[in-house]
Design a protein that fits this description.
Length: 892
């Protein structure tokens, strides 16, 4: 798609260029260049340029353009009044023997033009929207409206003649030389070959015309905000590159920021005689649409203060597209959290750590973590070379700032086997500094915000990030048997730091990382990695902050900044206390951080997880897959068609419970129940032997409302010896029957049967005795379909269980309210038999999900009461989840 768009754009550009050449033939260009080459006076230069402008706009245009000289200007191209709603008005000023690559000479011409514009304004002449300055060798184009602001200032010497303004109005000259809008790139008409000079002239007129084609007379002051920058960058990407598929996002961002801020015009510039090539450091040249870019940039007022440039650069990471930086899971660190990290490191490592320790930010990006501080021994590396350029100017004291793939470069080397630093990708200075730190017991801090990506993340479009974890470090972690966590990039960073610490014998080492907090919760995914990491590191301090504090990330999960001290052969902890912190704005508009609670994350061994406990009964014997046809469901009534299902239904199963992962955050996305099989898998069959445990699992997972800072916590198996447990089981049963993700349905579909009766799929979760249903429907002729359906049938599994159990007052209240709603909706079912056959409301054991479908069209008067009673039960269950040790309470 990108390639097709690029080809289309290239074809469009070629057609546009052909039209341009027809209006400005090479013969005209030769005449101009010959006249300029033989000029003797400034008037000769003026006459040569006026001739080509007259031919292009007056003689070869049908728009009514005319050229004149109001207030004795060198030239003013405009249209007759009323001929166009918006047309070019070009103010021309020509000089001899200037150097338009110099800001002073461009300011000299612009100063004269501003004085002309002041006279225009005084005398009621329409102001120009384009300024063109030229000499015998070069020309430049300015958007005139960027300079209107000077016309209302009283501090300038408006009494002098415009031609003398550059000498007699020093205040305006000084202001212009500081004006970023004057940082334009002159078109060159000397040197090179004839075609290059001709193309440069075409570019000049194309740039002027593009202002007309934009239909916009206004300039825009760039507001330093994420919304503005993102929008500008999107426009930039649309128009910039002739070969967009060859431009990596980080390079695009770097070029955008350099063009916008003009921080380094020595290495970043359009080639003077080919503005379709943009020069980068190392004499690299990128194919661009130079005219379109110049016009785009000229529409923005780029007078940035140093502080504003810092802000722009700080959010540059936000512009890098998903297929590169966000694909890898990188996120920029806001300054307030970088400052908080420094504060925590001072408290734990030492107040003077920036002067005493070797600090290595090994995923530095544009140096958001370190840019506000100075370090005695700082090393900065990043995966993207262009980020080195973006961060140029920050931390100039760094010993080295270098491109480095932390998860691949030097990974198979050791200082023992490879003592020659020239064999290593890292700079010699860092290699030697690590060696010295090991010998002298110097503290070293690996301080970074590593990427959070995982190969397992499935995107909204069904794609995944498969492949991003395939690094040399990943291979070594798998060889060590570190399990699924080896797919996580931040875990790979942690593993690699440990390698370096051990290889260089860095006994006073610290790891200070921003990471996803989930690995603190252990379980199957992280347990092997946690055992390995925490045998070598001691947790020193840490906090939790909302991921939404970072750029373009979800606000549903926590990030931790945590500090670990190298302490081999340490006994791993199982609980980690972290302060929960968030930023806020004070009444004065300053940003501050406050602590809202202290949260303890429990590292749950895989054998003690709730998911392991709920599946234990299934491990005691082998079950046969059902030999009858059954639906693969994605919800209560939606069959997954054309999918490759993972779920398998056992013979005699009561249904299937999807129970993905073990953490709180998955409770509302990955825990649901159906009366057949679930296409998604990631769960288990509910059978009589694990029925109680299934209800406990469902209730515990669904009753806890996720809060971002405990979103990643894993559930521990319940304390079955606690006296509360037996009541909790029965409460959980009632909760499971009536919660919104409990999708029990009775199907009457000729393709499915679990009863031996064709087309009849029993809902074993139906809670009312069959005799009770019969009494309610047998005397109502409108409900004879239900009466006929129950003939010869018997009580469902759950109805039998309910008749044999005693329930708490809260559970019984829900059950009574549900029964009431069932009775109230019964009279409305017949009205839906024909119109909504897909709801199978003729089934006598139609489940609660089906009852709710009736209630949506024919509301039951008791439904609000039911919801109130259910909320009381839910709150009770949520409280007892903590009482039974499945989760740990927060401390204020």
């Amino acid at each position: 798609m990108v390639r097709m768009e690029a080809l289309w754009r290239r074809s469009e550009d070629e057609n546009h260029r052909k039209n341009l050449r027809r209006r400005l033939p090479k013969k005209t260009a030769k005449t101009l260049f010959a006249a300029l080459k033989t000029k003797e006076t400034e008037k000769d230069v003026e006459n040569a340029w006026r001739k080509v402008f007259t031919e292009y706009y007056v003689e070869r245009q049908n728009e009514g353009y005319q050229i004149s000289s109001p207030e004795n200007v060198d030239g003013f191209i405009s249209v007759e009044s009323g001929s166009l709603i918006f047309a070019l008005r070009i103010l021309l000023e020509f000089k001899r023997a200037t150097d338009l690559t110099k800001t002073y000479d461009r300011a000299r011409i612009t100063c004269q033009c501003i004085h002309y514009m002041y006279k225009f304004k005084q005398n009621g002449i329409d102001l120009p929207n384009v300024i063109v300055g030229a000499d015998e060798d070069q020309a430049f184009v300015l958007l005139a409206s960027n300079f209107y602001k000077y016309l209302d200032e009283d501090k300038y010497n408006w009494k002098v003649a415009p031609s003398d303004a550059y000498k007699e109005d020093p205040v305006l000259m000084a202001d212009l030389q500081d004006d970023a809008n004057l940082a334009v790139y002159p078109f060159q008409f000397v040197g090179g070959n004839e075609n290059e000079r001709y193309n440069s002239l075409l570019d000049l007129f194309d740039s002027i015309d593009s202002i007309l084609n934009s239909g916009d007379q206004h300039s825009y002051k760039v507001t330093v905000s994420p919304a503005t920058i993102v929008g500008m960058f999107d426009q930039f990407r649309e128009i910039a590159f002739r070969e967009p598929n060859k431009i990596k996002p980080v390079k695009a961002v770097n070029m955008f920021m350099q063009m916008l801020t003009g921080k380094n015009d020595t290495d970043y510039y359009f080639l003077p005689r080919n503005r379709n090539l943009y020069h980068l450091p190392g004499d690299e040249k990128v194919k661009v649409y130079g005219v379109k870019l110049t016009t785009f940039l000229d529409h923005y007022d780029r007078n940035f203060t140093p502080k504003e440039i810092d802000k722009l650069t700080a959010i540059a990471d936000r512009l890098i597209e998903a297929n590169e930086r966000r694909y890898k899971g990188d996120f920029w660190t806001p300054s307030i959290w970088a400052h908080r990290a420094d504060e925590m490191m001072q408290e734990t490592i030492g107040q003077d750590y920036k002067n005493t320790a070797l600090v290595w930010d090994c995923a530095a990006g544009v140096r958001n973590l370190t840019r506000d501080y100075s370090y005695k021994n700082l090393y900065l590396s990043t995966y993207h070379q262009d980020e080195i350029y973006l961060g140029d100017g920050y931390n100039p004291e760094a010993k080295a700032a270098f491109q480095y793939d932390f998860l691949n470069d030097d990974v198979n080397l050791t200082p023992v086997d490879n003592p020659n630093p020239d064999e290593w990708k890292m700079p010699n200075s860092l290699f030697k500094a690590l060696q010295e730190a090991g010998k002298n017991d110097q503290p070293i801090v690996f301080f970074t915000n590593p990427p959070y990506g995982t190969a397992n993340n499935v995107q909204a479009d069904g794609s995944s990030k498969r492949g991003i974890a395939k690094t040399l470090v990943n291979e070594q972690m798998r060889q060590k048997g570190l399990g699924k966590a080896s797919q996580q990039l931040y875990c790979q960073f942690m593993f690699r730091t440990l390698q370096l610490i051990q290889q260089f014998k860095l006994n006073r080492a610290y790891v200070a990382f921003f990471t996803n907090a989930r690995f603190f919760a252990g379980a199957d995914y992280y347990q092997k990695f946690d055992d390995y990491f925490f045998r070598n590191f001691k947790f020193v301090d840490g906090n939790l902050l909302n991921a939404g504090e970072f750029s373009d990330t979800s606000d549903l999960w926590p990030i931790t900044f945590s500090i670990y001290r190298y302490q081999p052969n340490d006994k791993p902890q199982h609980e980690y206390s972290l302060s929960v912190e968030q930023s806020y704005l004070t009444v004065n508009g300053t940003q501050q951080i406050k602590t809202i609670t202290t949260h303890t994350m429990q590292m749950v061994d895989e054998k003690n997880t709730l998911s392991k406990w709920v599946r234990e009964p299934l491990a005691t014997q082998k079950y046969s897959v059902a030999n009858y046809s059954y639906p693969q469901l994605s919800s209560a009534l939606k069959v997954a068609i054309g999918k490759n299902p993972y779920g398998r239904l056992y013979e005699g199963s009561l249904g299937y419970m999807v129970s993905n992962s073990d953490n709180i955050g998955e409770g509302f996305r990955g825990v649901w129940l159906v009366t057949s099989s679930a296409y998604k898998g990631h769960g288990f069959n509910v059978i009589p032997e694990n029925f109680d445990r299934a209800c406990v699992n469902f209730a515990a997972r669904r009753a806890i409302d996720p809060i971002w800072y405990h979103n990643q916590d894993n559930y521990y198996r319940p304390d079955v010896t606690n006296p509360l447990f037996s009541e909790f089981v029965n409460d959980a049963l009632i909760f499971t029957l009536f919660e919104n993700s409990s999708f029990q349905v009775a199907y009457r579909n000729p393709e499915w049967s679990n009863t031996g009766v064709t087309g009849k799929w029993a809902n074993q979760w139906f809670w009312l005795p069959i005799d009770y249903v019969r009494e309610e429907v047998e005397d109502n002729p409108k409900l004879r379909l239900i009466y006929n359906d129950l003939r010869g049938d018997g009580d469902r599994f759950v109805a039998k269980e309910i008749m044999e159990r005693n329930f708490s007052s809260e559970a019984q209240a829900v059950l009574n309210s549900a029964n009431k709603v069932w009775r109230q909706t019964l009279k409305s079912r017949s009205a839906m038999f024909d119109d909504y056959p897909e709801f199978y409301l003729n089934a006598w054991d139609a489940g609660w999900y089906q009852i709710k479908r009736i209630n949506e069209l024919f509301p039951a008067s008791g439904y609000d009461e039911f919801k109130r009673k259910f909320e009381i039960l839910k709150n009770k269950i949520a409280n007892n989840v903590y009482e039974l040790g499945m989760l740990i309470r927060d401390t204020k």
